[in-house]
Amino acid sequence: MSIKTVALIGGTGTLGAPLLYALHASPFTIHILNRTSSKSTYPSPTSVLTIPDDLDVSTLTTIFKENAIDALVIALAGSHVATAKKLIEAAFNAGVKRVIPPDFGSCDSADEKTNEILPLMKGKKDVRDYLIELQEKDREGVGRMTWTSLITGHFFDFGLTCGLLNFDVKNRIAYILDGGDVNFSNSTLPFISEAVIRILQRSEETANKVLYVHSLRATQNELLAVLEKVTGAMFEKIEQSSEEELAKSRPKMLKGDKEAQEEVVAVWGIVATDWAGREGFANGLLGLEEEDLESVVRKALGE
């Protein structure tokens, strides 16, 4: 399966912007999908395809066909289930070969316990189940559509400075879960972007799979030691129980509290995301190497 032309939606987001940068540096022909009412701007040279605000499937199908789109990368929030399904339906109708759904992020949407803890993950699973349904259907004149879900752990460089990793770097506070010796998988945004490129380049090997990657696998205590070294300051260490933190946050999350949802994602993304040894761990398949923790911390804090 040869992929030459890639369409990306969400190219100004936390992941989308570095992903667009990486795609520009790749051998693929790149198009950005941009809604009619969007005020987003993109670095030059970027080919922008204007799509309707209502994501009319017939119109999207025509756009995909006219631009010979081989692969669609959806870099939107996982909560946009209906949006993702419309894009995928159009991709199927247009003969697109590969779809990478918005499965990126902190937690494992292929894990039953995770879906129980976090309804947000159920939406990602719903999108993937829809892809599997379409993947099994024949398409007249073209091969079957394929997909790859990429599960990355916390966005490390983003999460380190916004509290997602349970560290308040500005105020030098470390919220340590369950003793702090639990290994958890993280990935920097450039690493995730490179993983997407490798998936598209290795289209046969990565077809119809849930793949797990990480650029860093560390414990909170290991990260704390590096942070104290890099900043030259001691952090106040506050011990927490993940079970107790979830018991406080989940009821509020289930009532629609978005901040509580982020708290649940932060906690579960630390205590339940060690990809090492897991079926589908794909660093080797994609030819990706882990990064050095101290170097990444220095770069993240410097930025």
UniProtKB/TrEMBL annotation:
Residue ranges annotated for the NmrA-like domain, each copy included: 4-134
Protein keywords: NADP, Oxidoreductase
InterPro entries: NAD(P)-bd_dom_sf, NmrA-like, NmrA/Isoflavone_reductase-like, PCBER-like
GO MF term set: oxidoreductase activity
Residue ranges that the Swiss-Prot or TrEMBL entry lists as coiled coil: none
Source organism, top-level taxon: Eukaryota
CDD domains: PCBER_SDR_a
Protein name: NAD(P)-binding protein
